[in-house]
Amino acid sequence: MQLLKNFNTLINRLQSLENRKKVVLVCPNDSHTEYVINRALEEGFVDFTLVLGGTRAPFIDRFLADYPDHVTVHETATPDDAAAYAVKLVHDGGADVLMKGTLNTDNLLRAVLNKEYGLLEKGHVMTHVTVVEIPSYDKLLVFSDAAVCPRPTDEQFKAILGYVLGVCRSLGAESPKVALIHCTEKVSEKFPHTLSYESMKEMARNGEYGDCCVDGPMDVKTACDSDSGAIKGISSPVVGNADALIFPNIESGNVFYKTLTLFAKAETAGMLCGTTAPIVVASRADSGESKFNSLALACLADKVNK
Amino acid sequence: MQLLKNFNTLINRLQSLENRKKVVLVCPNDSHTEYVINRALEEGFVDFTLVLGGTRAPFIDRFLADYPDHVTVHETATPDDAAAYAVKLVHDGGADVLMKGTLNTDNLLRAVLNKEYGLLEKGHVMTHVTVVEIPSYDKLLVFSDAAVCPRPTDEQFKAILGYVLGVCRSLGAESPKVALIHCTEKVSEKFPHTLSYESMKEMARNGEYGDCCVDGPMDVKTACDSDSGAIKGISSPVVGNADALIFPNIESGNVFYKTLTLFAKAETAGMLCGTTAPIVVASRADSGESKFNSLALACLADKVNK
Prior knowledge:
By secondary structure, the first copy, chain A, is an alpha/beta fold. Chain A contains eleven helices and eleven strands.
């Protein structure tokens, strides 16, 4: 499988799959969600179950009329009922991907975390993974965590590394190169995450994560620019050529995300990992395009948590 | 005074000043430092004292011959002797700015922190301030701390805010707008820096920092893009129009610095604040241009710590 270099080739990959992905969408009421549904049906890689929560937007009947074989509608009374129904559907194997429409993320997550029919198995760690297309970088770059884990513990870092590698492999990286981010190369007890980094590298060297190369701590520039590595005299397959970055805390991950989208014309996709199926919970400030990319990513990487 | 929008106008401002700035440079041995000296002499806003530490690069005599009125050379035996001599010169009022050439930052800082003739007065906080010119932002943006304070305490945050405001005013911002960065707008005990942010805002409202507007927590996009603020329904003079950003920890500041320079074609200048004179300690990976910008910034903002 060839390495996917941008979101267009990611869509093409989805179109070449034998089966369409089954996506359950909770409360599709707003125009961004309408755009996402429309685009995914046009591109032809999704069958939708649209779960309504007391509101039936005018576009629902248009999609039912235009794509009767690929759209199913289920009506419930409230957004919370819609969330519960959708989560159960994923739980019972009726959908590959869960996507949030117009309801609060907290309300959807309450259903996702339900002990009986929820999607987070005991001992698993829920985290957010972003994939970004940067005009000046020659491949898609995966990173975590910009949105969910504030200060990953040792165990959480190890889980995050697993999900990030899974996403990289879904994108066609056979031996993903992962950079563990800090501001310097020094490992120190003053920065406990650098100690977690040491044990992640040890596990990777021992083959516990399959074929991959994990290195760090290093800064963003060393990870993504070979000149910087050369000046610092650092030699590693990861330096200047990272497929993925793991950030030490939520603030640094979030700064990376916001800086790239605002100042570097980057396009993003994001999803929750660690649950039994990927969950798309794009935020209001994301563009329709970004939400569509997120759905496409989740469809391609739907086996990442298995 | 007009707001400086880029580094070119900053240089022009320095050229328009009545007196040249006095810069003492420790161990000028490498080609980047040669570039900086040459450029500053050509632009005509600096008088240099070059303190040699056992090495006399060939370009030293050329500068002495070409600019006899603006270059003084002092020879010492070792880099540590050079550092001590240069720091004492600043301490005794013989220079406005201290700049590092080819020696380890740690060796220079040992002299800077000397109890007898050093430059950090009791109770002051040393911090790093960066100024960045981003092609897609319409003015110079000031931020801290990408390099020195790992996890600012309440007291350190308050000092950093003072230095950042001083740099903004040196750049011509009469009422600087400062954004306190986090990944969300929520203030919470789970993130102690957001509690520091509350007391900084309170002090700013009480006039303790002069004319300015300090707001947050908010993310980078909300601080620098008015659309993001509008979508989130946040209204503040800072939103979308920040003159300066204060980061919660060194990793997020460093990620901002590296991401901008690598992916957004940004040009930077940086210096240490909190000491009795600004100190330029550019790192090996910085370009000659960036080192020259740093010197120019330190010359313009040399009164920021007074």
